[in-house]
Specification:
Helices cover about 35% and strands about 20% of the residues. By secondary structure, it is an alpha/beta fold. The N terminus is likely disordered. Bound molecules: N-(aminocarbonyl)-beta-alanine and zinc ion.
């Protein structure tokens, strides 16, 4: 009898102890999941318990197919995509008939809360992301800058800045000098911190610019780590020379910005970076391709079999440089970015290259400075902080200039706004697709709604807009981020801290076969050495 009582006591004790264990285990796991978020108090319950959603009867578009289907979402994940899914009582149903139902946009190029040219970009990780969600972008990859050249310190700072995020995000890391510590930090970032790309600035002499020698070391290290090397391709030495020339000519206004860094300097740096990446045999990603000169280098390299990705940005695709010549400084300064927005013709060439697959994905380079910040360069264009808005406008403008004009199908649109980015940065198909198992990042676009862009109604903090007054057809009326409806009926429903950091794993598809090419090359060198003997 005593034995039975003692057995029951033990069983009760083990039961209670294990309940405590599991309680603490799950609490810890939950808090760990939000390790970089602000306190939970600032997040609404909605952030943790996404609703069950059924999107019914829309035109579901992926990069490879388009079909009328329903999309069922549970716990922030797409559970099924098929026709005639039954709606049960507790499921919220969205009628999507007549709407395009597409993966949320992924913006590969943003600069939120970035210190640059004596200013800090006006959109932080909350305001910039809220604007993005209102414009149909559900994830972005921002550029973390080193802190005084220190990569890990810089990265830590950016993770802290992003604690107020309200949508999913990842990071690229910039490399602005070269030494052993930089090399070791790159390794730590790739192996332990979810970084799989490093950006090298070939411009901004005296601040961010790297030398060819530094770039070469960086390319070698990227290859070793399976990380993608990215370049801002402009010849920084020549730009500095061009700027002096303009000042000597008495050209001090925003138009001097464009004249001082002509397309030939973008073409030269693009060619140089491509050739160095070819020498190392590592993939290369050219950010913000703005000119025919750079485009031609990318096409030539791709034709020769080199793995080069070209990213045009929405400003370069949609605009020409005419407003850079506006006599009103405040108007012209809005358009100052680097490489510069080019004369008419370059934008059309970039559009054509995008539609034919010669360029692969579209970014924004959202780097917003308001008019008081831009005013720092009155009387000297070299001091105008470089950067334009776009995180909120990219999806709509691209739909208008590419899909409404017949240059691109909705499937092509999905490819360049979302899928290609997810593939290049190795998070496909969790992102970039509407398929079972993917994150429920989805937009509903009404192709018949028109609206007009204005700084008075946009959601970014910037007080101007480079697309001011543009009337567009086709509106993203609903944005769903991980199963939560965050944008609907012209209203945002977001809270700081609800966004998630998405680690980006190394060795994307771009690295497949690189080792084979290397070993074949080494074998051919050895063979030629033996022949000589
Ligand atoms: N692009 C630009 O003008 N500003 C952001 C920094 C950069 O990407 O070059
Ligand atoms: Zn750049």
């Amino acid at each position: 009898m005593e034995g039975i009582v003692s057995f029951i006591r033990k069983a009760i004790f083990i039961g209670i102890a294990s309940s405590f264990f599991f309680f603490f285990f799950f609490c810890f796991a939950e808090s760990n999941d939000h390790i970089c978020s602000v306190t939970k108090d600032s997040c609404s319950l909605n952030d943790y318990v996404p609703a069950k959603l059924l999107i019914k009867g829309g035109i579901v578009v992926n990069a490879d197919r388009q079909e009328i289907a329903d999309v069922y979402i549970e716990d922030g994940i797409i559970k099924s995509v098929e026709r005639n899914i039954k709606a049960f009582d507790e499921i919220q149903v969205i009628d999507a008939s007549g709407y395009y139902v597409m993966p949320g946009g992924i913006d590969p190029h943003t600069h939120l809360a970035m210190p640059f040219m004596g200013q800090v970009t006006i959109d932080d990780f909350f305001s910039g992301q809220a604007a993005a969600l209102a414009g149909g972008t559900t994830m972005h990859i921002d550029f973390a800058l080193p802190s005084d050249g220190d990569l890990l310190e810089g990265y830590k700072l950016y993770r802290e800045k992003a604690s107020i995020a309200c949508m999913d995000y990842g990071f690229h890391m910039a490399v602005t000098k070269w030494n052993d510590k930089v090399s070791k930090d790159m390794e730590v970032l790739v192996k332990h911190e979810g970084i799989n790309s490093f950006k090298f600035f070939m411009a901004y002499k005296g601040s961010l610019m790297v030398t060819d020698e530094e770039l070469l070391q960086g390319l070698k290290k990227c290859k070793k780590l399976g990380a993608l090397a990215q370049v801002h391709a402009e010849n920084g030495d020549a730009v500095a020379e061009g700027q002096i020339q303009m000042i000597e000519l008495g050209i001090t206004g925003p138009e001097g910005h464009g004249f001082s860094r002509p397309p030939i300097l973008e073409g030269e740096a693009t060619s140089r970076a491509i050739r160095l990446a070819g020498f190392v045999n590592t993939p290369l990603y050219v950010v913000h391709v703005m000119s025919i000169e750079a485009l031609e280098e990318i096409i030539r390299a791709r034709q020769s079999g080199q793995r080069v990705i070209g990213e045009p940005v929405i400003s370069g695709l949609a605009l020409d440089d005419s407003l850079l010549f506006d006599p009103d400084f405040d108007v012209a300064a809005k358009y100052v970015m680097s490489p510069p927005i080019r004369p008419a013709g370059h934008n059309i060439a970039l559009q054509n290259a995008l539609s034919s697959g010669l360029l692969q994905l579209v970014g924004t380079d959202h780097c917003a400075f308001n008019s008081t910040q831009k005013a720092a360069g009155k009387g000297d264009f070299r001091k105008i902080p470089n950067g334009v808005n776009g995180i909120e406008e990219r999806m709509h403008i691209l739909w208008n200039i590419m899909v409404n004009t017949g240059k691109m199908t909705p499937m092509g649109y999905v490819r360049v706004t979302s899928t290609a980015c997810a593939q290049i940065f190795n998070i496909y198909p969790r992102k970039g697709a509407i398929i079972a198992g993917a994150d429920a990042d989805i937009i509903l676009l009404n192709p018949n709604t028109t609206f007009t862009i204005s700084s008075k109604t946009h959601h970014s903090r910037i007080d101007t807009n480079i697309y001011e007054g543009w009337t567009l057809r086709g509106k993203i009326e609903t944005t769903i981020s991980r199963g939560r409806i965050v944008w609907e009926n012209g209203k945002l429903n977001v809270s700081p801290g609800s966004g998630r950091f998405i680690p980006l794993p190394p060795y994307s598809y771009l690295f497949n076969g690189i080792d084979k090419i290397d070993s074949d090359y080494l074998a051919s060198i050895r063979a030629s050495k033996q022949q000589k003997k």
